[in-house]
Write a structure and sequence with these properties.
The chain has 735 residues and is an alpha+beta fold. It is built from 12 helices and 28 strands. Helix 1 packs across helix 5, helix 1 packs parallel to helix 6 and helix 3 runs antiparallel to helix 4.
């Protein structure tokens, strides 16, 4: 059987909460009421402070504008309306609008809770419950009177410790109240001590009476001895005026000026600190004008600002005299050129032409005046010479008859930049033909030295350095170099036998050349260092044989590739005879031509390498007539004929047939390829024959070396046996 729940009404809640409600109102609601009154009071003070401050500022601005500008009635009326509008808007926003805003008890409780978070939200909840009870809300079914009574008791107990009066910013209220009193005090002081000035302000700006301010100002234009102020064109022109002693300094001073075009303008002048002086800067003036200055109750007569040109370098011509060792003629740079690169040690000649007659001219190098004096050539032309030691910038300082110079904040003198270029060392190239990196002690090196220098060579030398001390000269002069010649190429043979080199030594060679530079030289240029390893005759022959064998293997591959090309050519020729399409056989012949071109390039590479082997044999003194005949006459020369004649002709014929078919050309192609292939096979046979002979020689060389080792071991063993029988020798005993 279900239980019936009786809803809680407002009367039930009133009956339960009545004993606690009065105590809650005394402990909580009464302090909140006091807080509301204090808040309204502070709002009134804050609004009055803003309104008074605005009124004071507006009055001061109004007074300053009228006292300085001496405004007419209509302008003063407009200014008065602006002041009243500003004060009215401020009073509405800062005073009326905040007072019209409703502040509920709940808002005050929330303000207290934000400043004292300890009660949590119990204070706001208790105020809301009491407010609901006072409003006699009919539905209390969602509230528990018992719990509300307990909550009221807790808040009542905590109320005594809540900072009711500390939630507001009392210091701000005190400052704003002080601001109100200060504004009132300023007003009273201004009215009491302002005297005639305050009375005039009130009559002119409040009552809008047409009364005049007293005139007590006198302005004097500075630097105006004859009614003309001269200013350089393009510079800033400063007009200055000061107030005579004993006269009142105006708050604003203006300058009226009329340009040559007839335009009349007015600009305010700025006061210089606390001094009774005013100035106006016209930036980059370009034309003369008439001016007058007004301020307070004074206005000066019209005077003239005359714009004149500053002295300047209109044109510069730089002459250069190179150092004597170069034997170069003096020259002159293009007129107007202000950047020059000259050889170090050159003498410079600066000739300038000015835009107007000048009284003085000085040359400045960098930031220091040059020692040389500038000579006058004519009314507008000056000249000076200088020999700089380092790169530098130059300019001329000019002064005209009016005392104007060519330097100002807006204008800089014409800059002349001189960059000194050091004489470069001679360029040297050392070439040793017929060697790789291996040489024998008896080699004779074919050396070619090429030297060049821009201004002439003085001498050239060959420098050798080795890991072994030698009796030969370390530095040997290279003969044949003509003095002061700009290029030289000398070839000579240099034997290594006098150096006494031994296998395992290393020899470094380079050439060096000197020039005639007597300014910062002489300069010495060197070639790249050639490093050579000294080996025995047998070691060199073994290395060259190995390289020759590599080229034989490469040539053997070339022969096989040529055989494949010949076989493919026969196939193409057979298809042409069977009536193959012209386009197809042209593509096939073009492909064979490309292969033939690669064959020629690779064959030429083999020839060069074998010729290098032949040259190294000759340079190192191990080339015999038989080797020359075999390697030169039977291998290198036939390969050379192949590369120079047979292969180019075969390539040319293939290329022609690839472009247009010709039965005669086609008929000559097969025997030509057969002869080419036969020649290559003959050369390969010569290579293979010599390679077999070399294998026998190498085997005999190994046997000889092995026999030498056996002999050394036998002698050592025999010496040990003799020592064991007869004892150590006297020499070993002394040791």
């Amino acid at each position: 059987m279900s239980e019936t729940i009786t809803p809680v009404t407002a009367q039930d809640a009133e009956r339960v909460l009545r004993p606690r409600r009065r105590a809650f109102e005394q402990a909580v609601l009464r302090p909140l009421g006091c807080l509301r009154r204090r808040l309204r009071f502070y709002q009134v003070i804050d609004g009055l402070a803003s309104t008074c401050a605005m009124l004071l500022v507006a009055s001061v601005v109004q007074f300053g504008l009228d006292r300085t500008l001496r405004l007419q009635v209509d302008m003063r009326a407009l200014l008065l309306l602006a002041v009243l509008a500003a004060v009215g808007v401020t009073a509405w926003r800062a005073l009326v609008a905040p007072l019209r805003a409703h502040v509920s008890t709940r808002d005050l409780a929330l303000l207290v809770e934000r400043r004292t978070p300890a009660p949590g939200s119990r204070l706001v909840s208790a105020v809301e419950f009491v407010g609901a009870l006072a409003a006699r809300e009919p539905d209390w079914s969602h509230r528990s009177p018992t719990m509300v009574r307990a909550l009221l008791g807790e808040v009542e107990a905590e109320a005594a410790g809540l900072p009711w009066t500390r939630v507001l910013d009392h210091r701000r209220a005190a400052r704003r109240a002080g601001l109100v009193l200060g504004c009132l005090l300023v007003g009273v002081v201004a009215a009491g001590f302002g005297g005639e000035t305050a009375r005039l302000w009130f009559q002119r700006n409040v009552l809008l009476h047409d009364v005049a301010w007293p005139q007590q100002t006198r302005l004097i234009v500075e630097d105006l001895p004859d009614g003309v102020i001269r200013c350089a064109r393009g510079d800033d022109c400063t007009l200055a005026a000061h107030v005579a002693d004993g006269f009142r300094v105006p708050r604003q001073v203006f300058v009226e000026y009329e340009t040559e075009a007839g335009d009349v303008r007015r600009a305010q002048m700025s006061r210089i600190g606390r001094a009774p002086q005013f100035e106006r800067v016209f930036e980059r003036v370009s034309e003369s004008m008439r001016c007058r200055i007004s301020g307070g109750d004074d206005r000066t007569d019209w005077f003239t600002v005359e714009v004149v040109d500053r002295p300047a370098v209109a044109e510069v011509i730089i002459g250069v005299e190179p150092p004597a060792y170069t034997r170069a003629a003096a020259y002159t740079l293009r007129p107007g050129l202000t950047v020059a690169e000259v050889l170090k040690g050159s003498q410079l000649r600066f000739q300038i032409r000015t835009n107007k007659p000048v009284r003085e001219a000085h040359l400045v190098r960098g930031v220091q005046p040059a020692e040389q004096s500038v000579e006058r050539l004519s009314e507008l032309e000056w000249v000076v010479t200088d020999r700089p030691e380092t790169s530098a910038g130059y300019h001329f300082e000019l002064t005209d008859a009016l005392g104007l110079t060519n330097r100002s904040e807006r204008a800089r003198p014409l800059q002349i930049t001189v960059q000194l270029v050091a004489d470069k060392p001679p360029r040297v190239k050392l070439t040793v033909g017929g060697v790789s990196d291996l040489i024998t002690p008896a080699a004779v090196l074919p050396i070619q030295v090429e030297c060049s220098d821009t201004y002439g060579l003085a001498a050239a030398e060959l420098v050798q350095e080795s890991t072994r001390h030698t009796d030969g000269p370390r530095i040997a002069p290279i003969r044949g170099v003509e003095p002061h010649s700009t290029t030289s190429s000398q070839s000579f043979a240099w034997p290594l036998a006098p150096l006494g080199l031994l296998p395992t030594d290393r020899l470094s060679l380079y050439a060096q050349a000197r020039d005639y530079d007597d300014v910062s030289g002489p300069n010495v240029g060197t070639s790249a260092i050639l490093s050579l390893r000294v080996v025995s005759r047998e070691q060199l022959l073994e290395e060259l044989t190995r390289r020759e064998q590599q080229q034989r293997q490469e040539f053997e591959r070339l022969v096989r590739a040529q055989e494949d090309l010949y076989a493919e050519l026969l196939t193409v020729l057979q298809r042409i005879g069977e009536g193959a399409a012209a386009e197809e056989h042209r593509r096939s012949l073009a492909a064979l031509a490309r292969v033939q071109r690669q064959q020629m390039i690779r064959t030429e590479a083999v020839r060069r390498r074998l010729e290098q082997v032949l040259q190294e044999l000759d340079v190192n003194g191990v080339l015999t007539p038989a080797v020359r005949e075999r390697l030169g006459g039977q291998i290198v020369e036939p390969i050379g004929r192949l590369v120079r004649t047979a292969m180019p002709e075969a390539l040319s014929r293939l290329s022609r047939l690839a472009q247009q078919d010709d039965p005669a050309e086609r008929a000559a192609l097969r025997p030509e390829q057969a002869r080419l292939l036969e020649t290559m096979r003959t050369v390969l046979a010569a290579m293979l024959k010599y390679e077999g002979f070399q294998e026998i020689v190498s085997l005999l060389r190994d046997i000889v070396e092995l026999q030498g080792s056996v002999t050394e071991d036998t002698d050592r063993q025999l010496a040990e046996d003799i020592e064991s029988i007869f004892g150590p020798s006297d020499e070993k005993k002394n040791d």
